[in-house]
Amino acid sequence: MSSFISELRRRNVLRVAAAYALVAWIIIEAGSVLLPTFGASETTFQGYVIVVMLGFLVSLVFAWVFEITPDGVKLDKDVAREPGVARESKGLTNYAIIGLLVIALGVSITFNVTGIRNSADPSAAQIMANRRSIAVLPFSSRSVAGGNALFADGVHDDLLTKLANFGALKVISRTSVMEYRGTTKNLRQIGDELGVDTLLEGTVQRVGENVRINVQLIDAETDEHLWAKIYDRLVTDENLFSVQSEVSGQIAAALHSALIPTAEITAVSVPTENLRAYSLYQTGRDRLAERRLESIQDARQQFEEAISLDQDYAEARIALAEALVLLVINHAALPRAETFALAEQEIETALTLNPDLSSGYATLGLLKTSMWSATRIGTENLEAEAAFERALALNPNNAQAYMWFANLRDAEQRSDEAIGYYHRSMQLDPLGRIPYNNLPMLYAQRGENEYAIRLWLEAINIHPDWPVPYQLLTVHLAAMGRLDEAVAWQRMTLEKSSDADQMGNIGVGLYAEFGDLDRARELLDDLPAGHTLARFAPGFHLMLDGNYKGASETLINLVEESPEVPQFAHQIVSDISLLAGDYDNARKHMYIRNPVLQLDAELEIDRFTVRDVVKLAYILKQEGDARRSAELANRALPVVQSLPLLGIFGQGVREAQIYAILGQADDAIAALDAAVDAGYRSSTAIDQWTLAIDPFFADLRDDDRFVSILARLDALKAEMYERVLEAESTGDWAPLIALAGST
After folding, report:
1. What is the DSSP string of 176-196?
2. CATH numbers and ranges of domains, the chain
3. pTM for the whole thing?
4. What is the per-residue burial (b if ≥16 Cβ within 10 Å, else e) of 112-125?
5. Given a cut of 80, is residue 83 above it in pLDDT?
6. Rounded to 5 degrees, what are φ and ψ at 549?
7. Quick one: DSSP state of residue 121?
8. Which 8-state DSSP code applies to residue 41?
9. What is the pLDDT of residues 323-359, one digit of tens each?
């Protein structure tokens, strides 16, 4: 062993090893500083270090085989062994080592004493300068203290609000990020689902009055930690809101100073000094986001209690206004005019308290859109447009404002713009509920029915426990003539919520279409007492019995005794009154449902009015006004022909109805044949009657061609009902459910 060591010394291997170690340290030290400056990842640096270490082995082999002499590098065997040469060679090596030590010391002083290392370590702002999207995940609480979770949520909310005000950065909305509270998903998966390149996560730990907030910026693609910061603060009940605002402001400033150097971090005013009010507001928002009848009602109570504790709580007033509007337009659970007036008052008060509240203007836009779309008379649509534009100017990342703006554009029949706004909303709120349900309806309006189905299935995949996409898909399938599939999805809908609006009505219609009146009656009787349509059950029973006059009178009495019934109730009354031959009430309730029809010659016939225009043309014909009836029918015809035949907005046999009104029997029969060939099976989603009793075709009832069409339809529906009965007997609905996803 001693001879081997002596040989290593003779060949200068040990000296080379020492020299290379110094060189390697310098190279690695410099790389750790300089590589991040050029955007190199942690993985790149690891590879860099491995290469340097492999060079160590190469240097040892080189030293064993070669020797540095005054005459240059030579093979060891070719070097003369005179003592002078050996001493000179060793001296050169010693000088090299001493020089490297001096260089290493200089590097250390330069990087660590002068601060070059610190300046080269990228700040959060420098990191974000190369990124354009971020999701701020819910901050987790690591304390048992009850108020700690509230503080963590507060910092999270404040930070979201501050970041969202910068249009250059895409900030995922609270609705989507809150879906990941307590999630077990890894950060890469979350980043992919939200479509962002950066994630920010944080923890809050409280011991007594001492709070530590730890935030980390993470690369969503690689899961690498890019930046971290710890904030230690003293927090009491008195300074809680000011501290959370301070900390969120510092985090926002750290992230934004390089991205937008000239921008100022918006100071978010303390929303309330009342901790109880704040807690109620937070709970209410979570309940409101569920978008169920019972959850919105609960949220309303939470907001009202919060306001009772703090009359100046602007955010709570805006949230209350939103809840009130949604209870009217989505669930018909409150009187329309009175509720809208109350909501407008809450918005006005809130914007007086805080005129820079983006959510306030967005909710005002929702209210004005709802007021205008009911009649499409007046200028509320222009007021809504101005409100949305103001909301987005204050917060370019307001996903809800984009969504509601899309609703306005849809009501204005500006579908391209509506689709664009929906897509922008979905980018900012990838897990939001409403756009995933409204966007398919826009495509259905265009006749892209299969694509609409795929989008609703996607909505169901994202929110499998939310009943609305199930409901809309059920109605859509029924209107496409896929009645067996519609029954399967109706069952799925009722499993999610027994209060899914109109599901009882659709179910009654489906089984009536199949000719199974007993099952239709069972569905009526099974409706929960609080169901929207439970009140109409007596009238529907009479209709199923063929007593149209009795059904009409029963339902008329119901709506007159309860004037605050939902708007669609008047549509039902109008349809059944028409079936009973009561044209006065048919017209009266049609006008209540759609006041714009009274404009007469100035009436614009479009997809919103064409159904009732055709009905009005039929009524006028029955009343003897053939000229005006024909005028309306001829004006409605090209509108109907421009709209989809099938689907949730499909016109079904409406073209045939128009030809029947005009007395063009051959054209009516041809249109009926074409509709059946295309897939028409039912008017369930369109009218309150089946084709067999459709009053528009009374003059064709004895026509052999019409009878043949009815027989053909009956055979097709019988095949569908066999599949329904088989599913009921086996309990296996999966084959029928799966059909929607196989198109």
Report:
1. HHGGGTT----HHHHHHHHT-
2. 2-120 (no CATH), 124-266 (3.40.50.10610), 533-593 (1.25.40.10)
3. 0.75
4. eeeeeeeeeebbbb
5. no
6. -65, -45
7. S
8. -
9. 999 999 887 788 888 999 999 999 999 999 999 999 9
